[in-house]
Amino acid sequence: MPQTASLLALISIVALSSPSFADGEKDNHPENVRQVPRAGIQVPAEREAALRSGLISLQQKIGRLTQAKDVLTTDLLPDVMIFERAVRCALDYDEFFSPKDIDKADQLIVEGNSRADQLLSGQADWPNQSGLVVRGYISRIDHTVQPYGLVMPKTYAFNHSVPTRCDLWFHGRGETLSEVNFLWDRMKNPGRYTPAHTIVLHPYGRYSNAFKFGGEVDVLEALEDVQRRYRIDDDRISVRGFSMGGAACWQFAVHYADRWFAANPGAGFSETPEFLKFFQKETLNPTPWEKALWNMYDCDKYAVNLNHCPTIAYSGENDIQKQAADVMETALQKHSIKLRHVIGAKMGHGIDKASAAIIEKGMTALADRQRLQTPRDIHFETHTLKYNRMHWLTIDGLIEHWTPARANVDWKFDTGPVDNHVELRINTKNVSGFTLNFPPGTFSIEQATGDDARLTIATTVFSGENIPADDVSLEERAADPWWFTFATEAFSDGSARLQAHRNTDGKWVSGPTSVPLRKRHNLQGPIDDAFMDSFVFVRPTETAANETAGKWAASELERAIEHWRRHFRGDARVINDTDVTDELMQSANLVLWGDPGSNSVMAKIAEKLPIKWTSEQVIVGGQKFDAANHAPILIYPNPLNPDRYVVFNSSFTFREFAYLNNARQVPMLPDWAVIDLRTPPGNVWPGKVVAADFFDEQWQLKTK
């Protein structure tokens, strides 16, 4: 190999070996937390003036384009807005971290103005551009424009209809990864892998949160935008990443296993407690609800789902973050799955060329095989209805959230001389309702006979710990309370659907549940879930009944606005309580600040909540707290629109201490909490938590 090529390869490996990590044990002290992202450098006055001038020009053009109301212009406008927002935020919030960042901003302003000029002239070349392209979309969460990067292969023909493979690549941790730096990198750097004939999508993930919460939604929204704009083969989409991006890859692989043809996680972390003890040398003393909430993102608890997502893991032999794949390897072994784990010989936190070649060969083979759309059998585990689907199986209800819920489904065929009998055996644990939904053309009727081509499905639900033997007789089933058999039909278009739930006696019956208020997908909590969809901060316009609570809520609202922008790179929408409309309640989760005396929306719904908050007391079942020194935090289906949430006095629940290590970025509070306001808010908690718990599956207080 020529000397220059060898040097470039070495530089590539070293670059991967030196991401922005948390700083180890010195970052284990919540009372002494450094700022993330750190304060930027001072921008010389003349440079700032030039940037502001360029911004004004760009903003004026965006204003003209907004008024145009042309369909094509409206569709492409986010691709211009990403440059304006990147530079404006860096200027307004002190996020130029080096002199080079200022130079980058100069070029981003030039590119933004160029794109705006193209749109104003009725032309736009970047939608048909090969190579490195940056684009944007308007997020449903907070209506801000969010960027993403693409690597478009030269072989992609914009004038034909052949679907193309798409790999998602999740970036590593970067505490200075502002929008300016992200866009610049995506315009200059193709990334670690650029497979032939493949579109590579680089999501921003709303900064450095391991692509969780709002970052998770960013990935899904960016992918949806790419699928809308380009011809993506839905059966050849993969997830990949390294370091923090490897952690993201693990969670997308286990939570959305049926969406990808393969997953390729490298290093990173795969769960919270063991990683923090091993990597961070942290002593953990979790509250009961914290420990339960680790089950949201602890990927080892979802390992069985990788039956449905072929996975090639990578670790450097000498990389401390090899621990992530080791944990997953152990978890998979419990389900008789052996992890394909490529280990770079003598490598630290980087990928060597030999390993990269092995990985690429495997990924190419899996892409050629494509995603299996309708597997015969399903093995699925979850701990929350947030992640409740695997192919044609949907879990509609749990007996108890944050404990393991399993559903195994297998088919038994019996071809007879007159009719064909197909039995779907469903073994469930901690499941109270499910749906099997085979779209047209996905349910096999090859063994059917007769012109009508119908199959009778006898679906047998067993809710014990283990799947019983095949030879259990009908008489034995009838005598066993855990068995329930019912019939449905598979139709000649190849579709089938059936639904079942447990009634109040715990017995399985066909059809959906009639319980009107219950935890269900995207309405299951905890508090952080409200910020994974459209939300609005609603501030009070009156004086709080208790001065202490009023000041605390006002301070927490101010902090929430600041930290949503700082950590999730958005602008929270903020309105007065008097401006809340029926339309807004239909379209957004309402985050209410203040108390029932100061916030009129709180007052309207206060009596309809399980937790009572008066000017004298906070009442939680049999527990009473004086309202002069206490305030509740909670999430609940909005009584004025039960398809959306209301939240009292909280943004996302992890605070500054968690910013220092991505594995700490997990929900810190459950569905409700009572805060003693005599303890000031800190870097971990919004005050002293004197009581906290989850609501039950019907959104009521749990009975002890």
Quick structural summary:
This protein has 704 residues and is α/β, with parallel strands linked by helices.
Task: Draw up the topology in text.
Blueprint: H1 3-17, H2 45-68, H3 71-76, H4 78-92, H5 99-120, E1 131-138, E2 145-152, E3 164-170, H6 179-188, E4 198-203, H7 214-229, E5 232-242, H8 244-255, E6 262-266, H9 273-278, H10 288-293, E7 312-316, H11 323-333, E8 340-344, H12 353-369, E9 378-382, E10 389-390, E11 393-398, E12 405-415, E13 420-429, E14 431-438, E15 455-462, H13 474-479, E16 483-490, E17 496-502, E18 508-510, E19 535-539, H14 547-568, E20 574-576, H15 582-587, E21 589-592, H16 600-605, E22 612-613, E23 617-620, E24 623-626, E25 630-638, E26 641-648, H17 656-659, E27 672-676, E28 688-693
Parallel strand pairs: 3-4, 3-5, 5-6, 7-8, 13-15, 19-20, 19-21, 21-26
Antiparallel strand pairs: 1-2, 2-4, 9-12, 10-11, 11-14, 12-13, 14-17, 15-16, 17-18, 22-23, 23-24, 25-26, 25-27, 27-28
Helix pairs in contact: 2-4, 2-5, 4-5, 5-6
Largest sheet: 7 strands, mixed
Strand order of the largest sheet: 20-19-21-26-25-27-28
Uncertain segments are 1-21, 445-456
CATH structural fold name of the domain at 527-693:
Chitobiase, domain 2
Please report the number of helical segments.
17
Describe this structure in words.
By secondary structure, the chain is α/β, with parallel strands linked by helices. Among the domains are: 402-510, no CATH class; 527-693, Chitobiase, domain 2 (2-Layer Sandwich). Strand 7, helix 11 and strand 8 (340-344) form a beta-alpha-beta unit. The protein is globular and about 75 Å long. Residues 1-21 and 445-456 have low confidence and may be disordered.
